[in-house]
Design brief:
The protein has 480 residues and is of the alpha+beta class. It contains 14 helices and 18 strands. It folds into three domains: 118 residues, Uridine Diphospho-n-acetylenolpyruvylglucosamine Reductase, domain 2, CATH 3.30.43; 119 residues, Uridine Diphospho-n-acetylenolpyruvylglucosamine Reductase, domain 3, CATH 3.30.465.10; 198 residues, Alpha-Beta Plaits. Helix 8 packs across helix 10. The longest helix is centred in the last third of the chain and has 21 residues.
């Protein structure tokens, strides 16, 4: 399927001196400036912009004024959160030069309601600060990912971020009760509901969550908190295969129910990369296993997490699902265990992948996918595969690397073919080629190729209805 334009790119105008003058007239003096390099690039280096104009509003009203002016002058807007997105949603290298709009100055925790398990935060609040605010009232905001010290909650919601706790608590969408947002014409939608039940028409919250700034700009959110588990435990367990890991997950669910917070699968290749590139990370096993799982449990008062993990390990031994294991004996050891998982993406970056894939398949088909994907990639030449990720929700990070002694530059001609064979297999198995990172600009072609035609038509109709001038993050999600 070929990419279909939205029909609005030709209407957009670049940022001009006249636009900048008009913008400065409606905002405080310190709120508009030339964008520093960090606003013009993204982590994987796929996209880069040479220069840009940056707006730094401090209130929702200022965001509204910015958007209204941009809509009137038909200037594109690229919302910028923490800049940690991995699919190019935060930079626009093509088309008329847009305005970069960062909400980093809108970073207040507006209110906390522990008795309701609700926290209201502005969109520029760093995820780790949201977590800390919840912890201050003995609550948990469970969204957790590697970039939580930099990522901002507005971007987390705009991309429907996942992370390690989706198995128990869901994606960012499941942790949001309401939104405040500025729509493409500058209208402010006051939807900061704290209600669990509100069945009054179309759900604009869920429309904006995951829209990557293409339908509006999230300025604040009502977030769902949870009680903090009374006891937490972490374990590494060696499994014979991905199929054994799936069986162990089923056993863990039978024994612990919702007490499982995370269930991560890790391949030996990831441990090899850590040993070579980040030797400061302490590996859990002296002899690196081919496959292992990292399990986190959080249990209510009166239940012993270590005892629960020991029982799970014993069951795994009896059923020949596991062959070795380590249960953390302290908070420090739990931190060490998680450091292994959290540093795998960093080691991957240091190696330099040919093609990285954020995919999901039905959980029961994970072993089939891993086996078949290995075979089709192997046919393309001597390559290394690091497969790891959130087994509990079927989300794998399937990354393909150069053979030892070579670099990604040696495989530029193979990159597209590697991606194609992996994504074709994912699609065949009823999976998704974007499990938690979003579409951005990197995967607009994949969305066109693998997306359902009826869904794509509905998405274009919604985009046209809400953003007829196409100013909101042009080129993201839907191809220009």
């Amino acid at each position: 399927m070929t990419s279909k334009p939205t029909g609005v790119v030709s209407l957009l105008n670049p940022v001009t001196d006249a636009f900048e003058t008009a913008l400065r007239a409606i905002l405080p003096e310190h709120s508009v400036r030339a964008a520093e390099p960090r606003y013009l690039e993204e982590p994987r280096g796929r996209y880069e912009v040479r220069e840009g104009l940056l707006a730094l509003p401090e209130t929702t009203q200022e965001v509204s004024q910015i958007v209204r002016l941009a809509n009137e002058m038909r200037v594109g807007i690229v919302p910028y959160g923490g800049g940690t997105g991995l699919v190019g949603g935060q930079v626009a290298p093509d088309g008329p030069a847009p305005l970069i709009l960062s909400l980093e100055r809108m970073n207040a925790i507006r209110s906390v309601h522990p008795e309701e398990n609700v926290l209201i935060a502005e969109a520029g609040t760093i995820l780790a600060d949201v977590q800390a605010a919840a912890q201050n009232v003995a609550r948990l905001f469970p969204l957790s990912l590697a970039a939580e010290g930099t990522a901002r909650i507005g971007g987390n919601l705009a991309t429907n971020a996942g992370g390690v706790n989706v198995l128990r608590y869901g994606n960012a969408r499941d942790l949001c009760l309401g939104l405040e947002a500025v729509l493409p014409d500058g209208t402010i939608w006051n939807g900061l509901s704290r209600l669990r039940k509100d069945n009054t028409g179309y759900d604009l919250r869920n429309l904006l969550v995951g829209s990557e700034g293409s339908l509006g700009i999230i300025t604040a959110a009502s977030l769902k908190l949870s009680p903090r588990p009374a006891g937490e435990g972490t374990a590494f367990m060696v499994v014979d295969s991905p199929k054994a890991a799936i069986s162990l997950l089923a056993e863990a669910r039978s024994q612990l129910g919702d007490g499982i917070s995370a269930f991560e699968i890790i391949h030996k290749q990831g441990l090899d990369f850590l040993e070579e590139y980040i030797p400061s990370v302490r590996l859990p096993f002296e002899e690196k296993p081919e496959w292992c799982v990292l399990i986190e449990v959080g249990l209510a008062r009166g239940l012993d997490p270590q005892e629960a993990l020991e029982t799970l390990f014993e069951t795994g031994l009896e059923k020949e699902l596991v062959s070795d294991g380590l249960i953390a004996q302290s908070v420090g050891q739990r931190t060490e265990f998680w450091s292994v998982r959290e540093h795998i993406p960093e080691a991957n970056r240091l190696v330099g992948s040919i093609s990285s894939h954020d995919i999901s398949v039905p959980i029961s088909l994970v072993p089939e996918f891993i086996a078949r994907a290995g075979r089709v990639v192997e046919q393309l030449g001597p390559l290394r595969i690091n497969c790891f990720g959130h087994l509990g929700d079927g989300n794998l990070h399937y990354n393909v690397f150069p053979d030892a002694g070579k670099s990604r530059q040696d495989y530029l001609a193979e990159r597209d073919e590697v991606k194609r064979v992996v994504h074709d297999l994912v699609h065949e198995l009823g999976g998704s080629v974007s499990a938690e990172h979003g579409i951005g600009r990197l995967k607009t072609g994949d969305l066109e190729k693998y997306g359902d035609p009826a869904k794509l038509a509905a998405m274009r109709a919604i985009k046209t209805a809400l953003d007829p001038n196409g100013i909101m993050n042009p080129g993201a999600v839907l191809a220009l």
